[in-house]
Specification:
The protein is 34% helix and 24% strand. By secondary structure, it is α/β, with parallel strands linked by helices. The structure holds ligand PMT.
Length: 398
């Protein structure tokens, strides 16, 4: 998604300028060509050498640099940019852009370009909340700029408030979302479930499984990056909430069922990567169960089979986590649960299944079309699934 994209990174003079080095580094590692423009004030906080080392490209700091390369870049950067990202963006640069001022390389480039522009404000809370800054941000939004809300937290001044530059992952997630706007799933509503449900025994214990949520989160991010409107219904996981994805947290199978029913009311597809408990304790003790002299027997009852129960015209894509007879068991689930497609994963195979970053799966369609995929990253698996979802939606005339 970011590979071979040219991203012009505008760095302005705030204390968070050092974080722009991490952003430049992660974008470069993801395969993007990063061209950095620094304002005069940014030079007070970080040196161009840092960005040159990270990106392998010359950094532009002065509109009147006389080398041939910089003279060309004055206009050329705005033309080759797939996106312009200003991070951190000070109140000053936001005000200048909102007024159409073009008195340095960054503001000139912004005024010339036709590429999407993403602005990540970072400043003291009072400056950010000042109505002048807010009016300027509103002006940029009206003109189609994407604004990344700053985070609340400890500020460089020692105070606490809104104004912190968000984590690099949030900025990169926003860039991917902007690139994905016109993807093949543009405007499609996709509901994804992730993680292992937790069925409470008492206030401190539950029955669950080893699902990390990685598979479901990968599907949610991939769908977002292809332009879909994604709702992620997730149990508690150690993963960061994906930027640009509506995320709803649940615990039990019953909560997941109720949330899936609501979320799919207008959906085009439901993709259930969650490992949902098939059984739950019949009763949940109100107080912590005390250790007794003898053994403890638990009575378990069935949970709702969410993907079977939920009704609608949307596509239903299930996963089958199997430890034996992979394809035969997956096909049974495909039929019994009336699915359009099932993703069969042998969770005993090396590097595949619960918690792993990779997975080896077989995709099986309702009509019986079967595709064995090699071991690949969960993100690659997600894109393979979504290739099929796009096709199936096309066939349905959606
Ligand atoms: O989260 P990770 O660590 O990345 O691991 C990924 C995964 C192994 C959990 C994932 O790839 C996977 O296989 N998820 C489905 C696991 C599972 O519950 O499989 P199942 O064979 O028990 O269920 C079949 C399908 O029915 C699944 O889509 C499941 O979400 C759904 N189901 C199951 C039970 C139930 N009560 N309601 C359901 O909707």
């Amino acid at each position: 998604m970011l590979a071979n994209k040219t991203i012009v990174l505008g760095v302005t003079g705030g204390i968070a300028a050092y974080k722009a080095a991490d952003l430049a580094s992660k974008l470069t590692q993801a395969g993007a060509k990063v061209r950095v423009i620094m304002t005069k004030s940014a030079l007070e906080f970080i040196t161009p050498l840092t960005f040159e080392g990270i990106t392998g490209n010359a950094v532009i700091t002065d509109m009147f640099q006389t080398t041939a390369e910089h003279r060309i870049n004055h206009v050329a950067l705005s033309e080759v940019a797939d996106a312009i990202v200003i991070a951190p963006a000070t109140a000053n640069i936001i005000a200048k852009i909102a007024c159409g001022i073009a008195d340095d390389m960054l503001t000139c480039t912004v005024l010339v370009t036709k590429a999407p522009i993403i602005v990540s404000p970072a400043m003291h809370a009072n400056m950010y909340e000042n109505s002048i800054t807010q009016e300027n941000i509103a002006k940029l939004k009206i003109r189609g700029f994407t604004i990344i809300e700053p985070e609340v937290g400890r500020l460089a001044s020692g105070g606490y408030g809104v104004g912190r530059l968000p984590d690099t992952e949030v900025i990169i997630g926003t860039i991917q979302q902007v690139f994905g706007k016109n993807g093949d799933l543009k405007g499609k509503r996709i509901v994804v479930t992730a993680g292992g449900t937790r069925e409470a025994l008492d206030p401190v214990r539950y029955i669950s499984n080893h699902s990390s949520g990685k598979m479901g989160y990968a599907v949610a991010e991939a769908a977002r990056d292809r332009g879909a409107k994604v709702t992620l219904i997730t149990t508690p996981t150690a993963l960061a909430i994906p930027t640009g994805v509506e995320t709803i947290k649940v615990q039990s199978a019953k909560q997941m069922r109720d949330t899936v029913v609501k979320a799919t009311a207008k959906a085009d597809a439901l993709i259930m990567a969650a490992a949902v408990a098939d059984y739950r304790p019949k009763t949940t003790a109100k107080q912590k169960i005390k250790k007794g002299a003898g053994d403890l027997t638990l009575e378990l009852v069935k949970t709702p089979d969410i993907i079977s129960e939920v009704k609608g015209k949307f596509l239903k894509i299930g996963f089958a986590a199997e430890t034996q007879d992979l394809v035969a068991n997956a096909k049974k689930k495909l039929t019994n649960k009336a699915l359009d497609m099932i993703v069969a994963n042998d969770v005993t195979s090396e590097g595949s299944g619960f918690g792993a970053d990779t997975s080896k799966v077989t995709l099986i369609n309702k009509g019986g079309k079967q595709e064995d995929l090699p071991l690949m990253t969960k993100r690659e698996v997600a894109d393979k699934i979504l290739d099929r979802v796009g096709k199936l939606l096309g066939e349905k005339g959606k």
